[in-house]
Amino acid sequence: MDSGINTGPQRKRLIIVSNRLPFTIREEEGELQFIESTGGLVTGIGSYLDTLDNADAPVTEHLWIGWPGTTIPENQETAVRERALRDFRSIPVFLSTGDMENFYHGFCNKTIWPLFHSFSMYTAFEDSYWQNYRYVNERFCEAIADIARPDDIIWINDYHLMLLPRMVKTMTPNLPIGFFLHIPFPTYEIFRLLPGKWRQEILEGLLGADLVGFHTYDYMQYFLQCTMRILGYEHTLGQIQMPGMIVQVKTLPMGIEYKKFSTAANIPEIADEMGIIKKTFGDVKIILSVDRLDYTKGILNRLLGFERLLQNSPDLCGKVVLCMVVVPSRVDIEHYEQMKKQIEENVGRINGKFGTLNWRPIIYQYRYIPFNPLTALYLSGDIGLVTPLRDGMNLVAKEFVASKLNKLGVLILSEMAGAVKELGEAIIINPNNIEEIAAALKEAL
Ligand code: GDG
User: Fold this and answer.
1) Binding-site residues, ligand 1, Cβ < 6 A
2) Which helix (DSSP H) or strand (DSSP E) does residue 97 occupy?
3) Which of 58, 100, 245, 372 has the fewest Cβ atoms surrounding its Cβ within 10 A?
4) Cα–Cα distance between 328 and 37 in angstroms, integer?
5) 40-54, pLDDT tens digit by residue?
6) Strand 61-67 to 13-20 pairing
């Protein structure tokens, strides 16, 4: 079946496949609202899609296949499908609440996410999650089968869909398939914690792609080591000879749309917002922190590092603020709820301990901030404080640096973020060492 989008005969069409679409549907006052999705995957792919207007772009059309973020009542599926295609060039894969429980909240976010970020103690090993993971990957394969044309290029994204490349390759051996993992790939010692059948199927699933990409050389090496030790495939310079095909494994660090941030100060609303920030804070130095709520992001360590700074250097009280934006994420999962509680307790505790009538050390915002005010914060921040315990790349670090057109500002970056491989000029810290975070802040100030 064809999507109905009219592409010229010689144009290649890119089919992006990811769990989430660039929009999320929410029900508000009985109406379904299409809201922009947040997170690194959508930012990263969105930046790439913006380059397709260029006449030299290898592909000029795209479609995006994914889950619309909630269960859609059957009688509204047609309307959602039509609007998704018309306004977002997207094709929704509808999943039931039960599927999302076992697949998304279960295998994706309680098994793979913690394990691949080296939080093995948070990892759940539930057979029902695994069964549903396979089932949902099959559903995505059917969605691709419905629209694929012989000259399409398929780009599958992230840990939710690791079985899909093999399924698509078996269905349509001639379609070129790329797979990109946005999170770290773990070492063999961690990966082998997955039961034998799961780890084997995941590797075989990924090796259905013609090209498998990772953010860093280390993740790529860990993957190659796992394919060798678990499946017995040797590689030559990242090429694996499989029965009937060659798989290329590559390091492809994801970037950002530099110009969007480097020219942001020219946007009047952003300039106005910066004016307001300047008026509010004057000469007080701003330490900026922006993340989705996630235990991998080291938000607590950051708070404790800031507290230690104030303890070690009381003269800084009144002269510095930590401006912390935390975007709600995966709110239904227990560890995330606990993390939110701990963050809020610590923000309250530190503000209570050091705050005065006219100075609050931490300005905490728990919500999504639109692009303009967020970028005004990047531009106004004196220090970008990025302290993940483990992070595939971390685009926030890159966005902060790209915004610093006047070259004033310091990035403090965790050695556990993939971005550290490219941003070696930052002050690099180990987020597990609170004293080191405090010392880095002092140096940056
Ligand atoms: C995954 C991997 C990898 C955040 N808050 C707001 C907002 N954001 C935007 C940022 C940035 C993106 O979301 C976050 O990207 P990160 O890379 O920092 O983190 P994850 O969401 O965990 O992304 C990560 C990434 O995929 C790409 O492969 O780097 O390692 O975990 O672009 O600007 N945007 C707006 N308001 C917010 O409040 N507008």
Assistant:
1) 38-41, 43-44, 182-183, 254, 290, 292, 325, 327, 368-371, 374, 391-396, 399
2) helix 97-99
3) 58
4) 12
5) 788 888 888 877 776
6) parallel
